[in-house]
Write a structure and sequence with these properties.
mainly alpha; 7 helices; single chain
Length: about 180
């Protein structure tokens, strides 16, 4: 799904966009959500989707021992099957949760019942969460006492960039739309 937000920004907010990019790469702004996709972009996007879907079909065919790729394609079609229906379609062997899956993996590894597992990040206790919330609340009120509203806003922007996943997209403008 690719969004085209041009009309929203232009008609609802009165914001228009100009593009500047290198003459050496006419596709530098490929995927830009502020204009319609070009035919080239649509073609390339569809090729990528088709390639990934084909790989998926092959992996399922081999991994689940289906006779051929057509039999997998007939039940796949971009749908998600869950629970009993997935089991009837031979897409899963067993039904259960995380603990059941860990137990089955331990059995396949020949560990029997002699195994342990640790979940990361470790869950915090109610008391740890309470202390953390109190510390955050105190920190926020100290910041508001010591900094101007603009400085607090800037601090929050900088803190938002400390995301451990490392994926960011920021607008040049931080504001509210009323």
């Amino acid at each position: 799904l690719m969004f085209n937000t041009r009309r929203f920004f232009e008609e609802k907010l009165g914001i228009t966009f100009d593009r500047v990019y290198s003459n050496n790469n006419q596709y530098a702004d490929a995927g830009n959500p502020n204009r319609a996709m070009t035919e080239f972009e649509k073609k390339k996007m569809q090729q990528g989707v088709d390639q990934i879907y084909g790989e998926f079909i092959n992996v399922v065919q081999k991994g689940r021992n289906f006779a051929d790729s057509l039999s997998v394609d007939s039940i796949a079609q971009g749908r998600v099957w869950a629970g009993i229906r997935a089991q009837k379609l031979k897409l899963v062997d067993e039904l259960g949760g995380l603990k059941d899956a860990i137990k089955a993996a331990a059995q396949k590894a020949g560990l029997g019942n002699d195994y342990s597992w640790v979940e990361y990040p470790k869950s915090k206790s109610f008391f740890e969460k309470l202390l953390e919330d109190f510390a955050q609340s105190r920190k926020a009120s100290l910041l508001q006492e010591m900094l101007t509203p603009d400085q607090v806003s800037l601090y929050r922007i900088i803190r938002s960039l400390n995301d451990p996943r490392g994926i960011y997209m920021r607008l040049l403008w931080d504001g509210q739309i009323n």
